[in-house]
Amino acid sequence: MANLREETLNTYLATLLDQYDGIRATPEIRDGSEAIDIAVTHSNATAAIPIFIEAKIGDSAANRRKAAQQARSRLSPASQALAWGLCYPTDLRDGSRSAQVTQRALAAAHIAFAPVPLVDATITWREGTVADLANTLLNTDLSQERVADAIEYTVRQVAALLFEAGCASALADALALPKTTKDLRAATLIAALVLSNAALLHHRLRLVDHLRYVLPLKDALKKPPILGQEDKAAKAIRQAWEDILDIDYYPVFAPALAVLNKVLDQAEAQAAVRVIAQNAVVYADELASLRFDHAGPLYHRLLASAKYDGSFYTNNVSALLLARLALSEKAVDWGDASAIAKLKVIDPACGTGTLLMAAMHTMRDRHEQTAAAETDLLHLTLVEDVLYGLDINRHGIQLAACNLTLGNPRVDYSRMNLFTMRHGPQADGVAKAGSVDILATAKDETDLASLTSPLPTAEGLGAEQVELSVGRNGSLAGQFDLVIMNPPFTRNDIRNRQYDSHNRRAVQEREIQIAQFVRIRGDELAFRAIDQTSVRTFFSPLADVLLKSDRAILAEVVPTTALTSASGINERKFLADRFQIDTIITSHDPRRINFSENTSIHESLLLARRPGEERKPTRFISLARMPRDAHEAILLSDLINGGKPLDNWGTEHAWPWPRIREGDWNAAQFYDGALADAIYDLAALAGTWLRPAGELCHIEPEGRRVRDAFLRDQSPTAPWTAPILWDHETSVCVCMDAKADVVGTPKPRKESYARFLTGKASRLLIANRLRTNTVRTAACYAKEPLLGSAWCPVRPIGPNPVLEQALCAWWNSTPGSLTLLHCRAKALDYPRYALNSLRSLLIPDPHHVDVSPLAEAFEQTRSQTLLPWPQMAECPVRAVLDQAAARVLRMNGRIMADWRERIAAEPTVSGGVVGESGRKGGK
After folding, report:
1. How many C-beta neighbours within 10 Å does residue 398 have?
2. Is the pLDDT of residue 105 over 50?
3. CB atoms inside a 10 Å sphere around CB 697
4. What distance in Å separates the CA atoms of residue 277 and residue 463, rounded to the nearest whole number?
5. Is 149 helix (H, G, I), strand (E, B) or coil?
6. Are the C-beta atoms of 771 and 826 separated by less than 8 Å?
7. Helices in 579-669 by DSSP H: which ranges?
8. Which of 653, 607, 670 is closest to 823 using CA atoms?
């Protein structure tokens, strides 16, 4: 049987795509010696930007790489095109079918496709039908992707030139950065980004009347480079930047000049400046019209700063979604520019200004739509009077200043409200803690200037922060209508590693003092909300202090763990006391679990407002899939704000106010609200038939303690060994019976600690991490006491083998699995359980119920294979365990069968996307 050629499928796909309104697709376009598989243009693009699609037959990892490589080869730094890779399913190769049948099969098939950036970065593949591909192409902001791609490529290219020219150390000095090997690479990247932003703004400043005498960037480039001689363009650019700095724009051009003055005497660096300038001339105007933070993604993707200060970049789509939810159509009279000008919006951890940018453009868009008016003047008002940003990262503040200005370069920088907050050890020997220091000064009208840090001048000397305008030099307490933020959430033992141990401790001691100040002022609820192990928790009391006492809104990105873990209950009670918790949105899209970049944890969006007389239920919205672009973010925000059905976007579940008040926000854990209700019903049995496991059992040590004390390989010279169940491979751990897979050897100088741990070994072990879409056994039982690496020993208080076996059956039954899903931490699809979480799991109390049915079910099924959680609905072993659990809880077995089906269908368990939305029909 003959196989279809790839060219034939490309022709069929182009024909199908061409049937969609606004799309023009042509197959096999010649480009030099090779043909481009498919070329696409569409009417939604802001410019005539072609998309080159390169396809392969067979959706394998190797073919995806080949398609991406071939697509990238179609691009160049000067390219005005975008590239996509695509993989057809193998069964479409069948050449025995007619052309009509093959086209129908292609239209219905699931193909893999992905945009391919010019730079060699991570590629996110999607799977869907031709209709999904067409819809994605139509709703992708092609100009934004092309411009961002071009700027990133140029910044990387220039950073490499600067590094190869040996400028890294000097640039680290100019930017006040550390000088480790990794940080020297970062210095060149930051320097290139600082130069790029200055060049972009320089080109835009030609539009400002009182800067007409400044040499335009385009004119500076007219001075041609002469081989072996100094590049006069670079010198001309420096003079122009000095002229600009004499007038204004300090946050952008002062650091850029500091960089420029360090490298201008080197030919390679002069060439780098020319490359930066050429790129800015091409893209500055288009970038300004696109309304997105181009610097944030690049800054956080390339640099290691997130590991120092705990900051993570909120991606542009998520930022737009959060801003539109917070600034709804009913928030203010958007047709009244004077009413908008009275608003005050702050991000106390603003980074590069992504959320402030999203808020600004949301307000501009709403005014345009309501008043049908131009918004250039409003832009000035928003940047100079409405928006405030605080951050400890000086370079982030500089980039934020440029981001907010590109749309209207007439902004008066002396009126901007962007402040670098003092952080770490200070010259007077007192440590500062950034924005959270406001908590220690909120009631005494301390001048904000005392908390802000000066920016370096071009000569490296201290200078005043952007000038505080009249009336803005007092406390920020109670001044704001909206706090919008994504606070840092890295643990304290990881954060602040740019400092030595002494100074790191000084910062932590300052944070302890701040918490005590909160307590001394009499706000016990706020004090209890603060968890000293995470600076993120300081930002909830900070938001309360910053916001007005009425009609104010809090909008933030939070780790989902903060909404569900036992450790976060005091913060939740504090927020419920000070706010009406309106809406909580959680991603249950297995492909995108977070709203930030560079993080693997599950995140949620929290929308709250100052409470009225009546407390209402909270809307828990679980997303089946995340919005992929600005168009989808707008669609989704309008549905949520309008209270309309979410359709394939996800589910909505109302959670009663009394539960919110008590800190029970567990509905965020589940896509299916019925499972959240089930957990609530089980929790109602606590104190009677059920009890927290920690009250009946010793649960320790956690896996990392075992890894600290033991080597997994047996040493012939070891004085003694210990059996350990190290791994949790689902191909091996298929039943409740278990045996050691490692004979552990005590590490050198850890023998005493290792011996201590062996005294805590047990025959019953519970998983302390698992993958929800593959796990079979959540607990296991061995013939001999074991320690665990991915497992944690469980020993009843007082020997009780029957209870051990009953608990093994319980944690593998549906209600036991449900309690494990309820206590998930970090990521919903790959939870890791702290000891306190495991100890909080509800288990049958043998003092009040007979657990023998569970022990008998264990004996009956202990060696039988359990199906993975996504198949638990048809698992015969779980059916037996559930019958026993139903007897113990005196519950109808049909209820547990229903729970089984619902758990298996959870997106974070099944690993599948529930539905797609936004598909367009053909002509």
Report:
1. 28
2. yes
3. 26
4. 27
5. helix
6. no
7. 630-641, 657-661
8. 670
Token pair belonging to 142: 């092609």
- Listed in sequence order, the residues at least 6 apart from 392 whose beta carbon sits closer than 8 Å to its beta carbon are 309, 420, 421, 422, 423, 434, 435
| Reported pTM | 0.78
Residue 454 confidence class, pLDDT cut points 50, 70, 90: very low
Amino acid occupying residue 423: H
**Amino acid residing at 384:** E
Cα–Cα distance for residue pair 299/316, rounded to 1 Å: 13
Nearest to 643 by CA among 579, 595, 582: 582
CB crowding 86-117: b at 16 or more within 10 Å, else e: bbbbeebbeeeeeeeebbeebeebebbbbbbb
Burial class (CB in 10 A: 0-12, 13-18, 19+), 202: buried
- Per-residue tokens: 608: 């709250």
Local structure of 399: helix, strand or coil: helix
Cβ atoms of residues 760 and 853 within 8 Å: no
Average pLDDT, the chain: 84
Cβ atoms of residues 689 and 889 within 8 Å? yes
Tell how far CA 782 is from the center of its chain.
Answer: 40
With contact defined as beta carbons under 8 Å apart, do 333 and 368 qualify?
Answer: no
Which pLDDT value is given to residue 305? 44
* Concatenated DSSP letters of 156-203: HHHHHHHHHTT-HHHHHHHHT---SHHHHHHHHHHHHHHHHHHHHHHH
Residue 835: pLDDT above 50? yes
In whole angstroms, what separates CA 338 from the centre of its chain? 35
The values of phi and psi at residue 461, to 5°, are -95, 165
pLDDT at position 316, please? 81
Q: How far is CA 441 from CA 77, 435, 445, 516, in A?
A: 50, 11, 7, 12
What pLDDT, on the 0 to 100 scale, is given for residue 472?
Answer: 45
- For residue 629, the one-letter residue type is D
Task: Give the residue carrying structure tokens 């002022």.
Answer: 521
pLDDT beyond 50 at 308 = no
Report the distance separating Cα 595 and Cα 601, nearest Å.
10
Three-state helix/strand/coil letters over 695-712: HCEEECCCHHHHHHHEEC
Band of pLDDT at residue 449, cut at 50, 70 and 90: low
Residue 524 has a pLDDT of 95
Average pLDDT of the residues in 122-132 = 80
Q: How many residues does the chain have?
A: 923
Other CB atoms within a 10 A radius of the CB of residue 1 amount to 6
Alpha-carbon torsion angle 596, 599, 605, 606, nearest 10: -120
Pairwise CA distance, residues 554 & 538, whole Å: 14
- Sheet architecture: strand order including 34-42: 23-31, 34-42, 51-57, 82-88, 111-116, 126-128
Q: To which H or E segment does residue 922 belong?
A: none
Both tokens assigned to 581? 């918790």
String of DSSP letters for 406-434: HT-TT--GGG-EEEEBPEEE-TTS-EEEG
Cis peptide before 746 (omega within 30 of 0): no
**Are the C-beta atoms of residues 99 and 68 closer than 8 Å to each other?**
no
Task: Give CA–CA dist 182/184, Å, rounded.
Answer: 5
Query: Is 38 within 8 Å of 10 (Cβ atoms)?
Result: yes
The tokens of 699 are what?
Answer: 């649960």
Closest CA to 897 of 866, 876, 914: 876
d(CA 900, CA 891): 14
Res 121 pLDDT > 90? no
Measured CA angle at 42 (ends 37, 44), to 5 deg: 150
Determine the residue type at 849. Answer: V
In whole angstroms, what is the distance from residue 156 CA to residue 170 CA?
18
